[in-house]
Amino acid sequence: MVINTNMAAITSATNLDNSTNELNNSLAQLSSGSKIVNPSDDPAGLAESIELNAQIGQTQADNSNVSNAVSFSQTQDGYLQQVGSALDQMSTLAVEAQDPTKSSSEVSDYQSEFAALGTFITQTAGAQFNGVSLFGASSGLSVTDGNASPFSMTAVNLGASAYTAATASDLTTDAATALSNVQTAITKLASDRASVGANEEGLTYTGQELGVLSDNLTAANSNISDVDVATESTKYAEYQILVQSGTSMLAQANQSPQSVLKLLQ
Questions:
Q1: Which among 62, 131, 176, 202 would be 20 to 30 A from 211, CA to CA?
Q2: Residue 113's pLDDT is what?
Q3: In the prediction, which pLDDT does 118 show?
């Protein structure tokens, strides 16, 4: 029996220190809700979690861009509906102006309304959405989908010749030509509204794709970084018992050398 080196106490102290560290780590995880409290807990998992968080942020930003693009398209369509109503009325006026029973004065009245509607369409061509042209030749926006590929929207140009020819027509000089020009503009409008509808449909699918991607990335990150409270609570209870028993055993080990005193009596 030796008294200078108490191996039982040393071993008990080492085990107690390990159990205490595990208990503290378990407590930190439960209180933070994260399995990775310190980089040393899971270096590889931490690196992957950082990358996933970045991807989640990018995906959410992409989804926000898509939502704004949908609003852009819906605004376009709202304007185009009004342009369609104006063209419908212009076609009616062009037909009425060809009535041989109408006097030149009455045709001039029709032309006044026709010109006002044309001015409305011309002004609409300059409309903007948050400072971005709605109907310019380059009004087709581009957003990123879930594969980081651009989704390009078809542009709608109210400055196209089909529209300008209609708005520049004059019922007092040639109502038949004016009617033909308006009909061409209506055909062009139908095509443009179909393009806007296709844009909205494509954007809707892109937004849904990004939403699914964001959910899956979040789930993957959760598996890496979020603590399982039920499992960790069980470990916490285990480490508490080990710390308590380790403390008791260390006390017992420290008392063992005192038996040497009986040999010296």
A1: 131
A2: 96
A3: 96
Residue 261 token pair: 């005193």
Residue 46 counted as domain residue = no
Min mean pLDDT across 76-85, 156-165, 237-246 is at 237-246
CA distance 263 to 265: 6
Find tokens 């957003």 and name the residue.
143
86-114 pLDDT, tens per residue? 999 999 999 999 999 999 999 999 999 99
C-alpha angle 190-193-198 in degrees, rounded to nearest 5: 125
* Shared-domain flag, residues 201 and 231: no
- Break the chain down into helix, strand, coil percent, rounded to 5: 75, 5, 20
d(CA 227, CA 215): 18
Residue-range definition of the domain harbouring residue 161:
67-225
Q: Is the entire prediction scored with pTM above 0.70?
A: yes
Kindly list the distances between the CA atom of residue 26 and the CA atoms of 19, 37, 129, 203, in Å, as whole numbers in the listed order: 10, 10, 53, 45
Q: Check residues 230 and 9 and name the one with the higher pLDDT.
A: 230
Tokens (6 digits) for 250: 């260390």
Assess contact for 235 and 27: CB atoms under 8 A: no
Domain count of the fold of the chain: 2
Position 139 confidence tier, pLDDT thresholds 50, 70, 90: low
Q: Which amino acid is at 81?
A: Q
Helix axes 171-225, 104-124, angle to 10 degrees: 20
Does a structural domain hold residue 17? yes
